[in-house]
Design a protein that fits this description.
The protein has 301 residues and is α/β, with parallel strands linked by helices. It contains 12 helices and 8 strands. An 8-stranded parallel β-sheet has the order 1-8-7-6-5-4-3-2. The longest helix is centred in the C-terminal third of the chain and has 16 residues. The radius of gyration is 18 Å and the shape is globular. The relative contact order is 0.13.
């Protein structure tokens, strides 16, 4: 299925059972909720999806199951986050074999590669896959920035089509758009900067709290793109305390607690992660409870 790189693309969580197996029943319930809300794609195996703890075959199962559930309605994107170029290429080819429609590719893991090494890494993956690629640009968490000058070299590959922009420098959206026009699609990757990014021209939003609140997330995108700014801002301000749960080292635990509260997830995480404890757990549950108590009516759009 052709991907447009626009709209709301949930970076979905991976659901586990109490005995640490994939929970495809709850995973399916969440995916169905995303589709019902009108999301524009599904991204698997990202940081929020606990990719570093997943076995290769588990990733393949998730691709096949998501493809079955999506039934051609939206594209399925698999994340590539590996330490070695050869392994990343193998993962990309495996994702394509099992039905992924596109890839989100992170820079090399653990090793802080130079600009030249980073460019070469991305190019090798692009050369060895026919799938469309979105580069994940997140120097805050991964210590490697993909600059506009680096994108100039990367875009010689036609299948490098988009960027998940997570530098936290919102002016970078303008820089990229001015330099590359529509050649490079831009999706915001930071929940707390999403509306601002959409209003200055981002094509979409790779979202986290959408996992628990799909309808509200899709509504913000739609209202922003329809020019209904005041309505979008009102909904976004209600959402903001929840969105801040995404910019935390414990984002997985936070968002899974929110999924439990909205009935489309479980709290189980894979070790070394553990469920939140004590005061921090109470704090996060308080934010979620307050948001649910004041949950607004979504405008028609």
């Amino acid at each position: 299925m052709k991907i447009e790189w626009q709209g709301i693309m949930p970076a979905v969580t991976t659901k586990f059972t109490s005995d640490d197996q994939l929970d495809l029943n709850m995973f399916g319930a969440n995916i169905k909720a995303q589709l019902k809300a009108g999301v524009h794609g599904i991204i698997l195996g990202g940081s929020l999806g606990e990719a570093s703890t997943l076995m290769a075959e588990e990733k393949n199962i998730l691709i096949r199951e998501t493809r079955r559930l999506a039934d051609g309605k939206v594209p399925v994107v698999m994340t590539i986050a590996e330490q070695a170029t050869r392994i990343a290429i193998e993962a990309a080819q495996s994702a394509e074999k099992h039905g992924a429609d596109a890839l989100m590719v992170l820079p090399p893991m653990r090793y802080k590669s130079t600009d030249f090494e980073t460019i070469t890494y991305f190019k090798e993956i692009a050369k060895n896959s026919s799938l469309p690629i979105m580069i994940y640009n997140n120097p805050v968490d991964y210590k490697i920035e993909v600059t506009p000058e680096m994108f100039e070299q990367l875009l010689v590959h036609d299948n490098i089509e988009a960027v998940k922009e997570s530098t936290r420098d919102i002016t970078n959206i303008g820089r990229l758009r001015n330099r590359f026009g529509e050649r490079l699609k831009i999706l915001c990757g930071v929940d707390t900067l999403a509306l601002e990014s959409l209003l200055i021209g981002a094509d979409g939003w790779v979202a986290g709290l959408v996992c628990a609140f799909p309808a509200e997330t899709v509504a913000i995108y739609a209202l922003a793109k329809q020019g209904r700014t005041e309505e979008a801002i009102a909904l976004y301000r209600w959402f903001l305390p929840l969105l801040e749960l995404d910019i935390s080292p414990q984002l997985v635990q936070n968002i899974k607690l929110a999924e439990v509260a909205t009935g489309i997830g479980t709290e189980y995480v894979r070790r070394p992660r553990l469920p939140l404890q004590g005061e921090e757990r109470q704090r996060v549950q308080g934010i979620i409870a307050k948001a649910l108590k004041s949950r607004p009516t979504i405008p028609n759009f």
